[in-house]
UniProtKB/TrEMBL annotation:
Gene3D superfamilies on file: RutC-like
CDD domains: YjgF_YER057c_UK114_like_1
Organism: Rhizobium meliloti (strain 1021) (Ensifer meliloti)
Name of one Pfam family that matches: YjgF_endoribonc
Protein name: Endoribonuclease L-PSP/chorismate mutase-like domain-containing protein
InterPro entries: Endoribo_LPSP/chorism_mut-like (IPR013813), RutC-like_sf (IPR035959)
Domain named Endoribonuclease L-PSP/chorismate mutase-like: residues: 6-145
């Protein structure tokens, strides 16, 4: 399965970045039994937060979906750092998506689709997951989106 995932990444033009180190008192991931818990990932690109501000004011839905895609790519980078290879992923169980948005913005679900679509495209059937999409007043470093993940592993 690892080769299939790598092929899909290549076909989608995705190169996984180096996994981002934590910036506070936490670890980027925890393996417990057959589960991998990945801490919230921001839309990091080239070492900085790529999409900032509030969705509905500073960022449109398309820009926020790109932020969610970047979060998903960083989730995969953390998974690879934790597991050594993405082929150990049995199932993406759940993602929690947090969207910094204005009080009247109600399309958080569309924003988090950016991550859901990318993860399903990369992981195939194993990438179909449960999720939450929640509006937030603000996120660390003024990020527009943050997403964490729970993954079942072999």
């Amino acid at each position: 399965m690892s080769a299939e995932i790598e092929t899909r990444l290549t076909e989608l033009g995705i190169v996984l970045p180096q996994a981002v180190a934590p910036v506070a008192n936490y670890v980027p991931y925890v393996v417990s039994g057959s589960m991998l818990y990945i801490s919230g990932q921001l839309p990091m690109e080239n070492g900085k937060v790529a999409v900032t501000g509030h969705v509905g004011k500073d960022v449109d839905v398309a820009g926020a979906q790109r932020a969610a895609e970047l979060c998903a790519i960083n989730i995969l980078a953390q998974a690879k750092a934790a597991l050594g290879e993405l082929g150990r992923i049995r199932r993406l169980v759940k993602i929690n998506g947090f969207v910094a948005s204005t009080p009247d913005f109600v399309e958080q679900h569309l924003v988090i689709n950016g991550a859901s679509n990318l993860l399903a495209n990369v992981l195939g059937e194993a990438g179909k997951h449960a999720r939450a999409a929640v509006g937030m007043a603000s996120l660390p470093f003024n990020a527009a989106v943050e997403i964490d993940a729970v993954i079942e592993i072999a």
